[in-house]
Amino acid sequence: MIGPDVKLNAPAFVHPTAQLYGDVTIEAGASVWPNVVMRAEMYRIVIGANTNVQDFVMCHVGDGADTIVGANCSITHHVTLHGCTIGDNCLIGIGATIMDGCVIGENSIVAGGAFLKERTVIPANSIVMGAPGKVTKTRNNALANAFNAFMYRVNGEAYARGDYRYWSSQAFKAEAEIEKARLFALHGGAA
Q1: Any alpha helices (H) in 136-169, and if so which ranges?
Q2: Residue boundaries of the structural domains of the chain
Q3: Disulfide: which of 42, 150, 156, 162 matches 13 by Cβ 3.0-4.6 Å?
Q4: What's the pLDDT score for residue 190?
Q5: Which residues are paired to 135 by β-bridges?
Q6: What is the rounded distance in angstroms from the CA atom of residue 68 to the CA atom of residue 102?
Q7: pLDDT of 9-31, one tens digit each?
Q8: Radius of gyration over every alpha carbon of the chain, rounded to an integer in angstroms
Q9: In the CATH hierarchy, which fold is given to the domain comprising 1-191?
């Protein structure tokens, strides 16, 4: 169900079981997978270009806060985002929870199962683990995270045309090699 206030700006794919309500914007190339729920009764939710929001993710606005996700991010299965900001080129691992007022810097990874308490600020290029979540390493993860987002964008485009096995195709493998080279050049080889 997509509510009347939702703005779809040419996403790659929005699964029919997704529940999107209120001031929600899904940008170009983004994908929203099965059983995602986004509710923005006040404030707003923005999902950036080429970002994927995977199965069973819950996005809600916070106490006085939007939920903003940058471009080229992967919000993986069973994540909860609640009134937080995620920078570009981030990967939020399976089952992580990011609470009100949190800010995740660009090119970061939040490990599966991590819990970030209210108003936690994570610098760019971080790897975050634990409950409460803390920076455990510093590394620019832009290339790997952007490639993961690319995989989901093309998979979303494939799903939209009824192709549920595109990742196993030779066409995908060729497209992936081209994208890896492009991202390597763009990010200077940062892994």
Answers
A1: 142-160
A2: 1-191
A3: 156
A4: 52
A5: 128
A6: 11
A7: 999 999 999 999 999 999 999 99
A8: 16
A9: UDP N-Acetylglucosamine Acyltransferase; domain 1 (2.160.10)
What pTM, to 2 d.p., does this model score? 0.96
| pLDDT tens digits, 82-117 | 999 999 999 999 999 999 999 999 999 999 999 999
CB 73 within 8 A of CB 59: no
Other Cβ atoms within 10 Å of 106 Cβ, number = 21
Kindly provide the residue ranges of all beta strands, DSSP E only, lying in 50-168, ordered along the sequence. Answer: 52-53, 58-60, 67-69, 74-75, 80-82, 85-86, 91-92, 97-98, 103-104, 109-110, 115-116, 121-122, 126-129, 134-138
User: pLDDT tens digits for 28-72?
Assistant: 999 999 999 999 999 999 999 999 999 999 999 998 899 999 999
Task: Give the whole-angstrom CA distance, residue 152 versus residue 122.
Answer: 25
CA distance 43 to 72: 23
Mean pLDDT for 127-136 is 98
Q: Which amino acid is at 16?
A: P
**Residue 125, both tokens:** 């290029």
